[in-house]
Amino acid sequence: MAELVRVGQLAPDFEAEAVFDQEFVKIRLSSYRAKQYVVLFFYPLDFTFICPTEVLAFSDRYDDFAALNTEVIGISVDSKYTHLAWIQTALADGGLGGEVKCPLVSDLTKAIARDFNVLVSEVGVSLRGLFIIDLAGVVQHITINNLAFGRNIDETLRTLKAIQHTQKYQNEGCPANWQEGMATIAVSRAD
Q1: How buried is residue 115: exposed, middle or buried, by Cβ count under 10 Å (0-12/13-18/19+)?
Q2: What distance in Å separates the CA atoms of residue 86 and residue 46, rounded to the nearest whole number?
Q3: Which of 28, 113, 117, 167 is most open to solvent, judged by the fewest CB atoms within 10 Å of its CB?
Q4: Does residue 77 contact residue 107 with C-beta atoms inside 8 Å?
Q5: Active-site residue (options: 19, 38, 51, 96)
Q6: Distance, CA of 80 to CA of 89 (rounded, Å)
Q7: The whole model's pTM is what?
Q8: Are 18 and 103 in contact (CB under 8 A)?
Q9: Under a CB-based contact definition with an 8 Å cutoff, are residues 176 and 182 in contact?
Q10: What are 130's strand-pairing partners?
């Protein structure tokens, strides 16, 4: 069993096949270190019901994440060929309608899901895990939803902004419901 991924620890590295801009590419998580933050989101399967709403929601907000120097990467246990077919299938037919701005990684062996402790081994799919990884490759935030409901993209952006703010201003903390531009709280990192 993989060691539990924790906030404050280096994210497990991986290299995997992905589909980006309707082409097959390789993605290595560690290649983003010192360059970009990463929002890594796991979803159960292509051609399902809730998953396309999440992938399309992240894709629709891709430019908001890019403005925060952040790459968004989706991962499921589907093959790269299934990802490509799903992207190219019309929305009315259960697909993604041709354009997805974020890469979709194939985790056919389930190794990445296992390493991030989101694999539901009984059914062979991932829970809806979300990991925000900073410039040093360190996990700063983890949420894991069950299979029945999707994530809130606004909350992911808010959390990312809070992480970036507290890394820039290390003597400040962001209180509950903090939004960019709101007052922060003076903190000591020894707390």
Answers
A1: middle
A2: 7
A3: 28
A4: yes
A5: 51
A6: 14
A7: 0.95
A8: yes
A9: no
A10: 41, 143
